[in-house]
Design goal:
Elements (H helix, E strand, L loop, with lengths): L9 E2 L2 E2 L3 H4 L3 E2 L4 E2 L21 E2 L2 E4 L12 E2 L3 E4 L6 E4 L4 E3 L7 E2 L2 H13 L9 E5 L14 E5 L2 E6 L19 E19 L2 E10 L5 E7 L15 H4 L4 E13 L24 E13 L2 E11 H6 L3 E7 L1
Parallel strand pairs: 6-8
Antiparallel strand pairs: 1-2, 3-6, 4-5, 7-8, 9-18, 10-11, 10-15, 12-13, 13-14, 15-16, 15-18, 15-21, 16-17, 17-20, 18-19, 19-20
Length: 330
Amino acid sequence: MLSKIFYGGFICALPVLFLDMALLWRPSHPLTRRTGARPSTGADLGLPSWSWVTGRSSLILNFGNDFLKKYLKKFESVNFVLDYTTGEQQTVSMVQWYSRSCIASTPRPIQAPWELLELKERSLQGLGDVPKGWTRFDYDGGEEPRAYLPYRYFYKHESDSTTEFWYPIPLCSPELVPTPNYDRLLSCRTQRTWLFLSEPKMNGEYIETRCSTIRDIQRKWAGILYSDDDFLPEGPPQFDTPPSHSEPHLRCELVAISRGYAYEGDYGWNLAEWTHDERPKAGGKGSKYEFYNVLWIEWEERIAYRKGVGRVEKAVWEAQELEWIDLVLG
């Protein structure tokens, strides 16, 4: 039913319009994998590991809805924890996603995230006509813009006279072509590298056993990684030699799926690494901490399956030996 009113529809329970953000979901507890999480035959694709439908657990999704001028309060339910607080990481599309029924099938482009990005960039600059039903207003700066961004305009939609937006978002209308049915394989061309699981993340006296620091081969801090299941190191590994030789089971294959950023000085950001001593700090309050959003993957018969999700600091990622690959996610 939601596919009929939500622009772009859904692909395996993820909203297509916000696909790059939705792919960053993580379970708050280890996933209990549903039957069929891996294909049983060549014709059976199984449940997609990249969607939360692959298992049972409470979920955390940092939705980063920066289109709203004033954020909603935190919403919690039995199965979801959706943060709408002012301190949210922002997500920037960087790959063209496709859906496909099998490796040999013709991939179909998923355009909605790029339509949103184009509309956002145009609207923030006040360029062009506003979409039907929307009205543009000059922003007088009476309130401090969220996340230090110098907004010049805000928008309202005729269906809601109270909610204010920094930019319009695409909405369904009767004139639109029916939402396409997407297949269960996702594919894109992106870059990958290998990093290493290190000490678990400390939260006060509590060790988050499914959240680990990740480091490069020189043992330099690189970022943070969340496991969908329960495998992460129990304590700091002892690296007497490079980790690729001494601890091969800690080596993890990562692929970049989007970019992201948060602002220094705003401690509302819901990032596990925010107060980590080794995290590179940007140039003062209001400057960007930039990173790549990554998936931890493993391969089975030319199809990659998600094992976890994380963030790698931008300069560290770009300093690695990166390899371009054609990623097919099952």
